[in-house]
Amino acid sequence: MTVHDTATAHHDDHHEHPSWLAHHFDDAEQQFDSGKLGMWLFLVTEVLFFSGMFCAYALYRNRNPEVFEFCSQFLNEKLGAINTGVLLFSSLTMAWAVRASQLKQTKILIGMLGATLGCAAIFLGVKAVEYSHKWGLGLLPGKFYRSQLENPVHVDNNYLYNLCIVPMVMLIACALYYVYALVTASKFHLRVAGPMVVAAACFFGGVGLGNYLESGEGHSEHASSGHHGSSEHGHAEHADGAHDSAGHGTEEPAKAKLSLVSVDNSPIHDVLVTPAESVTPQSNVNQSAMAGLFFGIYYCMTGVHAVHILGGMLVITWLIVKASREEFHSEYFGPVDNVGLYWHLVDFIWIYLFPLLYLIT
Amino acid sequence: MLPIFADVHDTFWFPKQASTFAPQVDFLYDVILWISIIFFIPIVIAMVYFMVKYRQRPGYKGSTEALHNTFLEVTWSVVPTFVVVWIFWEGMVGYLRMQTLPSDTEDVKVTAKKWVWSFKYKNGAESDKLYLQVGRDAKMIMRSDDVLHSFFVPAFRAKRDIVPGRYNYMWFQPTVEGTFDLFCTEYCGDNHSGMITKAIVQSEEEYNKTLALLAKEPDDIVERGKWLYERKACKGCHYAGTEGAQGPGPSYNGSWGKPVPLAGGGEVVFDENYVSNAILNPQGQYRKGYETASAMPSYKGQLKLEQIEAITAYIQSLQSAEPPKK
Amino acid sequence: MSVVTSPVTMPDKSQDLGKEDNYLTHTSGFLSWALTLDHKRIGLMYLAGVLTAFTAGGILALMIRLHLWNPNIDKSQAWLTNQQYNQVFTLHGAIMVFLFIIPSVPAALGNFLLPIMLGTKDVAFPRLNLGSFYLWICGAIFFLFSLFATGLDTGWTFYTPYSIESQGPVVAATMGVFVLGFSSIFTGLNFIVTINTMRPPGMTWFRMPLFLWATYSTSIIQVLATPVLGITVLLLAAERILGIGIFDPKLNGDPVTFQHFFWFYSHPAVYIMILPAMGIISELMSVHSHKGIFGYRMIAYSSVAIALFGFLVWGHHMFTSGMADVTTIVFSALTFTVSIPSAIKVFNWIGTMYQGTVVLNTPMLYALAFIFLFTIGGLTGLFLGALSTDMHLHDTYFVVAHFHYVMMGGTLVAFLGGLFHWWPKMTGKMFNDFAGIVSAAIVFVGFNLTFLPQFVLGTRGMPRRYASYVEEFQQLHQLSTIGAMMLGCGLLVAGLTLLHSLFYGKKAPMNPWGGATLEWECQTPPPHDNFSSPPTVGDPYDFSGIEYDPKSGGYIKKKK
Fold first, then answer.
1. What are the chain B neighbours of C329 within 8 Å (beta carbons)?
2. Which structural domains are found in chain B, ordered by start?
3. What is the predicted ipTM?
4. Average pLDDT, chain C
């Protein structure tokens, strides 16, 4: 598992090295400092990675503020706020976990890591509701975007079911693992399986919560959006571009309909090009070249962020395994500390994403 | 002398100087070249001299000292700094001159698309070669229909990218009559290297003659109709071929003589009256299925009767083929 | 010449070295290489990989030159069709940049040398190091797919909107770039941490060999610039799959934004390529002159300066794109700032020879060729940094010649010099010095014959990426093609020399050149753990006690 295992297989002469110290490091401090510096550098690359998308966001919001205002109304800020809270709480539990690992409080450590994992699962559950809801509405990136002028828009929940398949399998697998742990009565397996079952269940808690809030007041809010997008097009070029791409707009929804299984058959795509509509600023905004771009940026940013959450869940699970073996103590807690740093960064990025995407007025 | 030293080029390095920018660019180039030589030759001489003088040989023992000399190190840091500041300054001055548009210019609209150039002049004339008047400032108003292109005439020392989605501008003043290569220098796909045309610089008299000739309508009535179709913006919406994408308006091909269903119900025949009405009063009779297309402007007062007749004749000539499938 | 080192058979070949344990013989079997955490073995595997990539890229380059023998205006006479030609130059650029030059010195030589020069057992994160190598393999597979799927014709720069419309496997290629980017990031991260935390007692920053300074500067760029490339190609892939429109003018996006994103990485990437090469030259010049490097601190600082200034000059790739005038002028001014530290280095290298004992062997000749070629490459950069001349020269063969002088005349020649220099240490075999000198001479002449005419082609207006050209350019193109063939032969000789040494080379002594850095105090080839006891760290450029020992055929350090 560790570097040391493979290395000491060849070098049995390094007796002075404790098992948790890799063979090429002189002492614990050097190992800890290296890990920490490495993690900070990695975080720098992560920030730069996201900064590219923040740049794209800034550029296009600056160019088309009305698009961002128009589209932001389709994002449910309640769900966003809940997710922000969940992630903030998970940062607390993660920080506590680091402390617990230093003090060798194994139970608290596993509990806190489990709580962090659960929060991450809730976050993803809520996100799944948000995504599936938007897909049902045709709020898709780029060329797949469908106009939102028709009212009421039918919401299809099949996407949600599909999104829930993998977590459901995970839940079942974790539950089976837990049963196995109970049967074998292995302390180690019980310690690992418990948090995993809770976390997998948390996902569905998140889905339930999100569904309740999204279906409660989804539509009426979206429907009353007539006055949005009132700012003018300062640039003649933009208007041009919009007309050019109107041609695409008419064709693409049809394609999107084919490729996405169960979209209803309301004649949304015909509305796009009625002469009366095509001159209002709102209909300029409400097409793939404009709103599609917003949702492109939205899905890229939140999607890449969600991938980071998933990655974080993987390494936290790895920590739970290590913690269950009671590997951490006051001289060796680097992995918990570093994963903690990573997790705080992922939260931190969400704290920027939330106002930038959800709270535009 | 080697043939490469004595071909069509006026100097070893450059093609003919054919614009007001050329002497200035060439001057800066030559100065940088001399600066480079002045730096390069001593470096090579020192290198070769040290190689020989301090080479390993029996009986010779080099020193391991001489690792530092503040005076030298400061000198060879500071002197190049002054030199490059000067080069930067000269380059900037020249650049700003290229960027500052003169007030009175001959405007040419340049459209680049894979892999052809099209130039449109003030009097409506169009050509695939660029015609210019000697001694007169010319301004290029450039846009691309598809991907990135770049306008480059080596003899003018002038280059500018053409970026889809925006207009880019450039200007220059040709100083010599003649024919010069015009290249696309931004990679644009399969036939990028075929996207070459000529910039033809003529005297004022010749230039005006060329433009008039380019702007003159052809004599043959069908040809004239086609000529008008291409220049009066019909082409933007109405398709005349048999395959490929259709525009937002009804296609011309194969329509002649067929019944046309109207939006308000009923039918009319596609004939001289229909065409004339559609050109002069397009909103009068919407064709079924095209109600939602953006409104066609009326050409009343813009086209003479005989021009409408020419367009009619052109549409009539297109009826041989099947209409393209929508 | 592609597979200079065959990882699987290596251990057996070196059995005859005697019973002493070294990293090649330490363990054997395929898995002992595939799963190794030893930085030296990873370095060797990188070396095999990048040399293979270089061979592929080189063959594509020769295809380009052969095709351009004729103007090809008459398409029926042309050797390649336009589409084929476009694919060939695209893959030539992409393979050379992403698979060869960027990982060549840092990943191959750097991996092998960095811990040994530092006197440590390994890099800080050996598993991450192996991971980087497999990411590189993964990226190479994506490129291989693009090569065989054919049709990648966007140029290595992937400029939009052409890359959005193109029929080629752009998504596969961009994923390759993405993966290779992460390989590069992790290598850089590893090196920074290693140098920061694992220097032995006594090795202060200013007692580090200059190669490590250069590698450190390079790593900073790798870590800071590459993520932006990652997100850029990810957005490009999203653009193609989803049509999100950030870079697509048809969907209200802006192609120039792509250029900014792309060059924000790819310009610093140029310094990822050249800085480690400069590090090699600093080592070579001093070791083979048997004299300390002239102006150590200036060279060290200039590496860092180049790394930092390198981040501020990306705009000079877009002088003709129609940026605002102020932006253009500021970028031009910043561009010139990079030229000063580069110039300082050249002067210092020359100064290093002064009063030294210059040995004209293969590595030294490559180093001298580097100085000659790199100086030309650097000076021609002045023409392109100055705005008004760049208006004429941008996107012509002048640019092509300029960056080949820097990338190939610079990095490749330095890489070859470094490879010959450290070859005995890596393999335990001496190569035939005469054959090496011949290769250096052919490469030098062939290189100049290939690329000097291209400067003239450029000033006369020949645009780059042209499959056919107007006839007046033909003679210069033919000269260039002849040069390219010669260059190819020179490289072949170099490859054969190294290959020959593997089988017939004499056993290499511990310190064949008389270097003072730590790798020369290490056994040849190095043992698994590099040093049995921590080495004593001295001045890396103190040559005073090092003398030739006829018995071993190498140099030994006399106790003062």
1. 92, 95-96
2. 3-99 (1.10.287.90), 106-215 (2.60.40.420), 221-317 (1.10.760.10)
3. 0.90
4. 90
